[in-house]
Specification:
This protein is α/β, with parallel strands linked by helices. Helices cover about 30% and strands about 25% of the residues. The chain contains six helices and eight strands; from the N terminus they run βαβββαββααβααβ. Strands 1, 2, 3, 4, 5, 6, 7 and 8 form an eight-stranded mixed β-sheet that branches. The longest helix is centred in the C-terminal third of the chain and has 23 residues. The N terminus is likely disordered.
Length: about 230
């Protein structure tokens, strides 16, 4: 990338905390750095008038072919929490679309960062730890992300794995309970068959045991570089 931070163009992580990630960046980058948030819906984001002037919203579905105005536009793309989006467990179409959006004209090659929880996590019942597997096969693609990056043309692939510290895992549980509540309404209720009600019942039971129940996800960060032109 160009060593001049004023020339950076960054695209936010689709699908999760669009405005939060960009607001944090805006605090640490010069106002001339353009920060675009890409998503299919911005209903949960603050009004544009409340945000720094260099943050813009761009409506786009990452699973679709990027329009011409987004081709080779970004030096950095950050993607997060797609474990809930890629239901078929195949990240390749998304990676190929994002590769097309990365700039061809940076000195050292443009970069993409993907951040998701791995399929393995830690369950704590009465603080006795045991390993469990994330339900279903959907999350297994995350474990293979470094290889998938390389197979699809990314270079200098780096991966970092870490779990949250034990003293905050109860807060992590609270966060996931709130997120699960939202999913139960916005996704499961629409699927019908009482799936939303079942999920909310499970969330309520977990809440009753909050003082002695928690889980700890392994956070996986994968970074790849598009070859320089």
């Amino acid at each position: 990338m160009d060593s001049n931070p004023n020339s950076y163009m960054l695209s936010r992580g689709f699908a999760a905390n669009t405005s939060i990630w960009l607001i944090e960046l805006a605090r640490n980058l010069p106002p001339s750095a353009q920060l675009d948030g890409l998503d299919i819906n911005f209903g949960q984001c603050p009004p544009k008038e409340w945000l720094p002037s260099n943050i813009s919203w761009v409506t786009h579905d990452v699973l679709s072919e990027p329009p011409s105005e987004l081709l080779e536009k970004y030096d950095i793309i950050h993607v997060q929490l797609f474990i809930t989006i890629l239901r078929d467990g195949n990240p390749v179409p998304m990676l190929r679309n994002l590769m097309k959006m990365l700039s061809e004209f940076t000195i050292n090659g443009s970069c993409m960062e993907q951040k998701d929880p791995d399929g393995n996590y830690l369950i704590n019942n009465n603080w006795q730890s045991q390993e469990a597997i994330y339900p279903g096969e959907n999350g297994t693609w995350i474990t293979r992300l470094p290889e998938t990056f390389k197979e699809n043309g990314f270079e200098n692939v780096v991966v970092d794995r870490h779990k949250f510290s034990q003293e905050i895992v109860t807060l992590l549980l609270d966060t996931w309970m709130m997120a699960s509540q939202e999913i139960s309404v916005n996704v499961l209720d629409r699927l019908g068959g009482g799936q939303g009600d079942v999920a909310r019942g499970l969330i309520e039971e977990v809440g009753k045991n909050r003082q002695n129940t928690a889980f700890n996800l392994q956070r996986v960060i994968t970074i790849g570089q598009k070859p320089a032109a």
